[in-house]
């Protein structure tokens, strides 16, 4: 941590429901911080409750960036994030403030830190073909096919993670090279960014699981189903969009489609969120230089502030 300089970006990362937002607010009360959200769900307008988006009062108290920048019909890539985040960093520093990157979308953190790999662009024809194939045999079977050509990528994906399975198979079809190989190759154009990561990680997985279930029930009580119902009623959104695939939204969408009942939707959403947290923790634990802070503890926010203080003071 002693290698911190004024050009280093402080990143606050952790699995979903680990307390990142509260810790970020605690930092902002102490220093002139502006928060850049590293989250692939809070970028969407009209998706507030299920993404645990900062309230309007919290946004007035501390400037937040990369919130509500897209309609749910649109898509957003790691390349988009890197471009927008670096622009925000420059603008925040020009105002004499400190950029704090906080969130749980690990691909965005990687794109920022390491630069972007030379991945092929989307191929609509191949995507349609893969979707049609999945409609016939199911995404778990598509996951099995991915394991045959790219076992490293398949190992880190859930058999029902349709979006990422489709993208990995698309890359294989377009380039003839496994996505894992392309991701491990050095970035071709981008300059790596120096970062320091404070990682909120639970000592007991069961505590995080309980927090996830409690938070989802609180979201339901706050009107999450009505929020999803409003999106569903638009008529132009569908389950192939990244916005609708977000955990919680996808399961409640199935409820509105009559595919499952309320109880099953709740259980599936909690299970999907726990799987997401597991993937996030696996990624974080691969970072040897991160500073680990116990999540879901009474002293979490105080410890985060102390660590940031060691850097800034």
From TrEMBL:
<keyword id="KW-0067">ATP-binding</keyword>
<dbReference type="InterPro" id="IPR027417">
    <property type="entry name" value="P-loop_NTPase"/>
</dbReference>
<feature type="region of interest" description="Interaction with substrate tRNA">
    <location>
        <begin position="163"/>
        <end position="167"/>
    </location>
</feature>
<dbReference type="InterPro" id="IPR018022">
    <property type="entry name" value="IPT"/>
</dbReference>
<dbReference type="GO" id="GO:0052381">
    <property type="term" value="F:tRNA dimethylallyltransferase activity"/>
</dbReference>
<comment type="subunit">
    <text>Monomer.</text>
</comment>
<feature type="region of interest" description="Interaction with substrate tRNA">
    <location>
        <begin position="39"/>
        <end position="42"/>
    </location>
</feature>
<keyword id="KW-0547">Nucleotide-binding</keyword>
<feature type="binding site">
    <location>
        <begin position="14"/>
        <end position="21"/>
    </location>
    <ligand>
        <name>ATP</name>
    </ligand>
</feature>
<keyword id="KW-0460">Magnesium</keyword>
<dbReference type="InterPro" id="IPR039657">
    <property type="entry name" value="Dimethylallyltransferase"/>
</dbReference>
<feature type="binding site">
    <location>
        <begin position="16"/>
        <end position="21"/>
    </location>
    <ligand>
        <name>substrate</name>
    </ligand>
</feature>
<dbReference type="Pfam" id="PF01715">
    <property type="entry name" value="IPPT"/>
</dbReference>
<comment type="function">
    <text>Catalyzes the transfer of a dimethylallyl group onto the adenine at position 37 in tRNAs that read codons beginning with uridine, leading to the formation of N6-(dimethylallyl)adenosine (i(6)A).</text>
</comment>
<feature type="site" description="Interaction with substrate tRNA">
    <location>
        <position position="105"/>
    </location>
</feature>
<feature type="region of interest" description="Interaction with substrate tRNA">
    <location>
        <begin position="245"/>
        <end position="250"/>
    </location>
</feature>
<keyword id="KW-0819">tRNA processing</keyword>
<protein>
    <recommendedName>
        <fullName>tRNA dimethylallyltransferase</fullName>
        <ecNumber>2.5.1.75</ecNumber>
    </recommendedName>
</protein>
<feature type="site" description="Interaction with substrate tRNA">
    <location>
        <position position="127"/>
    </location>
</feature>
<comment type="similarity">
    <text>Belongs to the IPP transferase family.</text>
</comment>
<keyword id="KW-0808">Transferase</keyword>
<dbReference type="GO" id="GO:0005524">
    <property type="term" value="F:ATP binding"/>
</dbReference>
<dbReference type="GO" id="GO:0006400">
    <property type="term" value="P:tRNA modification"/>
</dbReference>
């Amino acid at each position: 941590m002693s290698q911190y300089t004024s050009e280093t970006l402080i990143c606050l990362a952790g699995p979903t429901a680990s307390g990142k937002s509260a810790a970020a607010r605690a930092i902002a009360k102490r220093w002139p911080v502006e928060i850049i959200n590293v989250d692939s769900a809070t970028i969407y307008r009209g998706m507030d409750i299920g993404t645990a988006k900062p309230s309007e009062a919290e946004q007035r108290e501390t400037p937040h960036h990369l919130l509500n920048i897209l309609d749910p019909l649109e898509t957003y890539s790691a390349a988009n994030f890197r471009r927008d985040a670096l622009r925000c960093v420059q603008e925040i520093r020009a105002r004499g403030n400190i950029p704090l990157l906080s969130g749980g979308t690990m691909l965005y953190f990687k794109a920022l830190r390491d630069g972007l790999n030379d991945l092929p662009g989307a191929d609509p024809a191949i995507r349609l073909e893969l979707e049609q194939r999945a409609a016939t045999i199911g995404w778990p079977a598509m996951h099995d096919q991915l394991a045959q050509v790219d076992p490293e990528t398949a190992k880190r994906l859930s058999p029902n993670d349709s979006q990422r399975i489709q993208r990995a198979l698309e890359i294989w079809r377009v380039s003839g090279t496994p996505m894992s190989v392309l991701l491990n190759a050095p970035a071709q154009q981008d300059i790596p960014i120096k970062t320091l990561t404070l990682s909120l990680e639970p000592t007991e997985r069961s505590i995080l699981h309980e927090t996830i279930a409690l938070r989802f029930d609180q979201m339901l009580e706050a009107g999450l189903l009505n929020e999803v119902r409003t999106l569903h009623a638009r008529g132009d959104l569908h389950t192939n969009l990244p916005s609708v695939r977000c955990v919680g939204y996808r399961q409640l969408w199935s409820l509105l489609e009559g595919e499952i009942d309320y109880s099953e939707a709740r259980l599936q959403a909690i299970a999907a969120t726990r799987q997401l947290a597991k993937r996030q923790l696996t990624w974080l634990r691969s970072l040897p230089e991160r500073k680990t802070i116990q999540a879901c503890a009474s002293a979490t926010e105080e410890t985060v502030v102390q660590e940031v203080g060691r850097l800034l003071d």
